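Students often ask why inverse folding is considered easier than folding. One informal answer: many sequences map to the same fold, so there is more than one right answer. In these notes we will look at a single instance of the problem. The structure comes first.
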C-alpha cells in the first residue's frame, strides 16, 4: 500500500461550517470532501431528456405536490376539529 500524501487547505469560517454540517458520523473531513466531490449535480442530467419527457416529469411533480398539499390540508382540518 502506498504512502498517503496530505495537503493543507485553507477554508473560510463559513466554508468550514458548511463542510462540518455535511460531515457524517465516523467520517473524516477527507472522506467528506471525497464524497461531496463525487456527487452529481442535477445540471449533469441536462440534455438527457427530450422536452416532452421533461414536461411530463414537471407535470407529474406538480400533481404530486398538489396531492401532498391537499392531504396536509385535510390532516390539519382533522387536527383542528
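Output (designed amino acids):
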Amino acid at each position: 500500500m502506498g504512502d498517503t500524501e496530505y495537503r493543507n487547505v485553507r477554508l473560510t469560517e463559513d466554508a468550514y461550517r458548511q463542510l462540518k454540517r455535511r460531515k457524517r458520523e465516523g467520517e473524516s473531513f477527507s472522506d467528506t470532501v471525497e464524497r461531496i466531490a463525487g456527487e452529481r449535480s442535477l445540471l449533469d442530467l441536462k440534455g438527457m431528456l427530450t422536452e416532452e419527457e421533461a414536461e411530463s416529469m414537471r407535470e407529474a411533480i406538480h400533481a404530486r405536490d398538489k396531492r401532498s398539499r391537499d392531504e396536509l390540508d385535510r390532516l390539519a382540518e382533522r387536527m383542528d376539529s
